[in-house]
Amino acid sequence: MQLGMIGLGRMGGNMVQRLAEGGHQLVVYDRNPEAVKAHLTRGVQGAVDLADLCRQLAPPRAVWIMVPAGVPTQSTIDQLVAQLARGDIVVDGGNSNFRDSMRRAEQLQVKGIEFVDAGTSGGIWGLTRGYCLMVGASPTGFQHCEPVFKTLAPPDGYAHVGPPGAGHYVKMVHNGIEYGLLQAYAEGYEIMHSSRAFKLNLCQIAKLWNHGSVVRSWLNELAEQVFSKDGQLAAIRGYVDDSGEGRWVVQEAIDLDVPAPVITLSLLERLRSRQDESFAAQVIAALRSEFGGHALKTT
Fold first, then answer.
1. Active-site annotation holds for 171
2. Are 192 and 202 in contact (CB under 8 A)?
3. Which of 34, 158, 177, 190 is the most exposed place for a label (fewest CB within 10 A)?
4. 178 included as an active-site residue
5. 132, 78, 128: which is closest to 100 by C-alpha?
6. Is residue 277 classed as helix, strand or coil in its secondary structure?
7. CA distance 185 to 65
8. DSSP state of 125
9. Helices (H), the chain
10. How far apart are CA 270 and CA 286, in angstroms?
11. How far apart are CA 203 and CA 192, in angstroms?
């Protein structure tokens, strides 16, 4: 089918390549003209702006947005609305807040434009392995875009999980689970790395666990690759960023009165990783010295 793609970064660019190889007709746009040029050799049509992209698409037009959540996504949708007409479809494949997606769906519905939220997992490996797609949409919107989902995903790798907003909701929880899994692996490998009794080969252990162990997983396969390059991770600073979904899922758990200690603590550990020095730890050290006479380590 014909599709417009806005945003040609690490995810969007790879998705364009996978779709083009799957026989779809693509019209692409990115704020960086060089990013557009990089795809024109694959038979993909480029656009100079959003108006040009919409002009090149035949109605009913489907436009997929792969830009950062928040203001960039909202600004892109606002600009698109002026170019689109009743029966057209906007797909947000980024990591938007599900409440924003529900609101956008309602706003676009007034104009007769379908809104589809496609929670997308797979990272940079999606180009070759396919993307897991969690789709929130009306039945009409889902059916129209299904050929695209089928090409982007591996077998059984996409599903219509509910109405608009549901896709980003499921993806939010997915990323919260990811936080917890990453933290558990990180803590386990740190314990082994810190062992005083044994000098352990973490790459060997990661490889071992990937064969029959109950903790085998794709994440642990990636751990094996990482440790094969540098078992000490000496060149990597322990600074861990977050893109929002972990905070959202913790807030949702609070709103629903659902205990989620693992996900919550994994989020807090990410925040702690960004501190060069913890003031809270300094306070604890000072208080221990005051009430117990414990020795202080000074700078």
1. yes
2. yes
3. 34
4. yes
5. 78
6. coil
7. 33
8. G
9. 10-21, 33-37, 50-55, 71-81, 98-110, 126-129, 139-152, 166-193, 202-209, 218-229, 245-255, 261-272, 279-292
10. 24
11. 11
Whole-number CA gyration radius for the chain: 23
Q: Does residue 39 surpass a pLDDT of 80?
A: yes
Backbone angles phi, psi at 158, to 5 degrees: -140, 155
Write the CA distances from 170 to 98, 134, 150, 152, 253, integer angstroms: 9, 7, 19, 18, 13
pTM: 0.93
Summarize pLDDT for 265-291 with one digit per residue, the tens: 999 999 988 888 887 888 888 888 888
The Cα–Cα gap between 105 and 132 comes to: 22
247 is written with which tokens?
A: 């905070």
Phi, then psi, of 269 in degrees rounded to 5: -65, -35
Q: Which of 146, 178, 224, 252 is catalytic?
A: 178
Residue (of 252, 279, 278, 275) closest to 263 by Cα position? 252
Catalytic: which of 37, 111, 114, 171?
171
Question: Which of 42-46, 66-70, 118-122, 251-255 is predicted least confidently?
Answer: 42-46
